[in-house]
Design brief:
It is a single chain. By secondary structure, this protein is mostly helical. The protein folds into 2 domains: 64 residues, Orthogonal Bundle (Arc Repressor Mutant, subunit A), CATH 1.10.10.10; 31 residues. The chain is 50% helix and 5% strand. Strand 1 and strand 2 form a beta hairpin. Helix 1 packs across helix 3 and helix 2 packs across helix 3. It is elongated and about 50 Å long. The chain starts with 24 loop residues before the first helix and ends with a helix.
């Protein structure tokens, strides 16, 4: 069985969430795990560290990590087995974002919002 190659200190090299960011903490954690998978820090079939270890690395509550992992499980990115086993099951990619963007463009078009106006609206969103 292969596991995630830990960085110094035993973690995955994840960046802690920005508490000043309006994005919810569990969403930031999920996004950071997605990024790590996309960057090859964890590959399909590999085990991720336990939720409590990820929480310690990220400086968040274990429940925050578990909520992020459940979201990733629902997306098909990770599998949460019996006990504390968490494995990468799929690879998130920009395809999911592209699909949502297409949906957004279609909704905007149906409501009379042109592409330039849509881009301007996105640029005005808080970061």
């Amino acid at each position: 069985m292969s596991g995630v190659k830990p960085t110094e200190g035993g973690g995955m090299g994840l960046t802690p969430p920005d508490r000043g960011d309006p994005m919810l903490l569990h969403e930031q954690v999920a996004a950071e795990i997605r990024r790590a998978i996309l960057d090859g820090e964890a590959r399909p079939g590999e085990r991720l560290p336990q939720a409590r270890d990820l929480a310690a690395e990220l400086g968040v509550n274990t429940n925050t990590v578990l909520r992020a992992l459940r979201a990733l499980r629902d997306e098909g990115v990770v599998e949460m087995g019996r006990g504390r086993s968490i494995r990468v099951s799929g690879r998130p990619d920009r395809g999911a974002v592209a699909l949502k963007l297409k949906e957004l463009v279609e909704v905007a078009r149906r409501h009379g919002v042109g592409r330039d106006d849509l881009v301007a609206m996105i640029e005005r969103l808080p970061r």
